[in-house]
Design a protein that fits this description.
The protein is an alpha/beta fold and 293 residues long. Helix content is 27%, strand content 25%. The chain contains eight helices and 13 strands. The strands form three sheets. The protein has a six-stranded mixed β-sheet, with helices on both faces. The termini are far apart.
């Protein structure tokens, strides 16, 4: 049988096969091959006790995506939640998250939450920056369930993970999606579950058939340090068609003259705000590269 790993605690896996859940263990061969079954994996299992619904994992099907920290596979979407007020929108963090999504080749969806607290002109300005690039942006007021239907629509037939700084409204959004206060009850916390006697747990929650939300503790921190500064521009979508217009191969788009990116900014083809964030991310990566050894 084939099923989906929805939860992993220690060396035990919960695997969903159609409408049934099985308690599974991985065969020893995975340890020998240095492979670890991960939440989100589609696996082949062999039932060892039908009555108790116990089984062993025989094989893992090829992964479409794999995130190391926290470990999770086959994520198809990252839902990036930012608030328009309290806290104010952190577009630098958003741009780092978008770089990460591009790096991992996972589709990002941007949610602008708390639209009731900001002037429409400012909301439209931020929305335009990202829709012009080609990203999907959904405007919500999670407290009053405004925009929730649009969020539900993009979650269909996907394994999605939510990310965002503290206070942006992730928990309220999740509650609205489930129509229950799951986050308050602790069934899905979107917070780190570290404690004296508990393990950090990554778990998939089914919203409807074939539609899952991944509860991944610690997912708000994005590791893009593996990107070399010389390659950073490749992960800014709107830069790609302008890069060939640079005079120098390997142009950093910072100090060089006759730069395709700078010319695109002058012609309003690239947002100056996105470019400023590119420079900040570039300098941060550069500093880490210099201190690496």
């Amino acid at each position: 049988m084939q099923g989906l790993i929805t939860e992993n605690v220690s060396n035990k896996y919960i695997i969903k096969v159609e409408d049934k859940l099985y308690n599974c263990y991985a065969r020893g061969k995975f340890k020998q091959e240095n492979i670890v079954p991960t939440v989100g994996d589609i696996v082949d299992i062999e039932v060892t006790n039908l009555e108790k619904r116990e089984a062993v994992i025989n094989d893992i099907t090829p992964r479409k995506s794999y995130i190391k920290r926290p470990k999770i596979s086959n994520i198809t979407q990252i839902i990036l939640v930012i608030s328009l007020k309290h806290p104010k929108p952190d577009l630098l963090m958003l741009d780092k998250q978008l770089v990460y999504a591009e790096l991992m080749n996972i589709r990002p969806i941007i949610i602008l939450n708390k639209i009731d607290l900001e002037k429409e002109q400012e909301i439209l300005r931020i929305e335009k920056i990202y829709t012009d690039i080609g990203y999907k942006v959904i405007k919500t007021n999670a407290m009053n369930e405004i925009g929730i239907d649009k969020v539900k629509e993009v979650l269909k037939n996907n394994i999605s993970v939510f990310s965002g700084n503290s206070g942006v409204g992730k928990s309220t959004l999740i509650n609205s999606l489930f129509k229950e206060k799951l986050t308050e009850e602790g069934n899905i916390s979107l917070k780190n579950k570290r404690g004296k006697n508990t393990t950090t747990v990554t778990k998939l929650y089914e919203i409807e058939e074939n539609s899952y939300i991944a509860d991944t503790p610690g997912f708000s921190t994005f590791d893009i340090d593996e990107i070399e500064t010389i390659n950073l521009d490749k992960y800014f979508r709107e830069f790609k068609k302008e890069i060939p217009k640079c005079e120098f191969v390997g142009c950093t788009h910072i100090k060089e003259e006759n730069c395709g990116i700078k010319n695109a900014i002058k012609n309003n083809k690239i947002s100056i705000e996105r470019y400023e964030n590119y420079k900040k991310i570039y300098e941060d990566l550069k500093e880490k590269e210099e201190h690496k050894w």
